[in-house]
């Protein structure tokens, strides 16, 4: 006979307590405990019925290496992020801000799959929108396949019954926070519900070879809502990033058991849906004004591709107090450190200047390979002197003013040669290693203040 147990679970870290607590002793969050009922007993949960008495440990040589069959979607940016295509029986989690286009992306992927693999069925389950709303979006995107099924339901047991009847090869759940299981007596979106439903989807995907996608909401901090174990359970975690009021979106793989992590795909949001950006570097440099000062170029690595990024700086005199520091796409603390380096080693007083720094296109730079480019932009704006458009700056700048080398430089220089850039300013170490290997001028410097004489 099933037995109901009551516990209090922290919604931030899934810590369990027998009674309500004001502050979680595990993560320190206040008022994060919710009462949850769990049914224990026979048939209480699919996750409790996986015992196989015949299983035993095996030697490595006794285990056959599994070869993953890839299913391409013909959406090149998505296939690149996934590692070359979809893997049968995989479970992929897609997260992003509200209104960013997660449902639109999966609708387009489902439509492509239904066209390319017409013998296989696709099931799109929506718990947030009615069947009419989902169908309206699909028709707007030009999707009208004969093997594409839409189902509006939030109860997992009902969804599972339909899956077993329909037997789709591709399954989309929008979203995991709205789906509930009757085996767990708690509200939708709670940790127990998310964990239970995800576990059952994972079991079904692995046992039947069904390729599954689930959409996850994000918290105000930007992480996917629910326990962190949700990201550990799935095979692939993808974040859909960008400004919902802008037109460009970045698809970024944070975890991928079948491919490279930190891979990025770029899309443009249009009235007819998401469209791939074939040449991302051109997109970031498209609207530059000829002869403008306060801008410089750098080359960053995102996954397996090189991207040319424009960094813009604006230096304005401030006669009323301490200078203001404002950044978009760069850590403001990093800007403050580079400004201190300029004041110390260049002898240029910037303390009472307002400095604004922007990374064009909405990219967020987390590495330090663009330090030299940021300094060049600030100097160009301060002197009102433009930097030649065929010049690229790559290098990390230390607090002693030295210029350090960055990884994967050869890949960047090859891309520069293909894009017809003529000059690279980087560390002296890289210039010595790459001398004569590429048809462009590589200028090496040891100290950051040496760039003052280069433009």
Please provide a brief summary of the model.
The chain is an alpha/beta fold and 455 residues long.
Q: How would you sum up this structure, described in words?
A:
25% of the residues lie in helices and 28% in strands. The chain folds into 3 domains: 3-43; 68-278, Rossmann fold, CATH 3.40.50; 283-453, Ribosomal Protein S5, domain 2 (2-Layer Sandwich), CATH 3.30.230.10. It has 11 helices and 24 strands. The protein has a 9-stranded mixed beta sheet with strand order 8-7-9-11-6-12-13-14-15, with helices on both faces. It has a 4-stranded antiparallel beta sheet with strand order 2-1-3-10, covered by helices on one side. The protein has a 4-stranded mixed beta sheet with strand order 16-17-19-18. A hairpin with a 5-residue loop joins strand 1 (3-10) and strand 2. The longest helix has 18 residues, at 191-208. It starts with a strand and ends in a 10-residue tail after the last strand. With 455 residues, it is α/β, with parallel strands linked by helices.
Keywords:
455 residues, alpha/beta, Rossmann fold, Ribosomal Protein S5, domain 2, 4-stranded antiparallel β-sheet, 11 helices, 24 strands, 28% strand
CATH architecture of the largest domain: 3-Layer(aba) Sandwich
Describe the largest sheet: 9 strands, mixed
CATH H-level superfamily of the largest domain? P-loop containing nucleotide triphosphate hydrolases
Helix content: 25-40%
Annotation, overall tally of beta strands: 24
Structural class: alpha/beta
Tell me the β content: 25-35%
Number of helices: 11
Q: CATH fold name of the largest domain, please?
A: Rossmann fold
How many structural domains are formed by the residues? 3
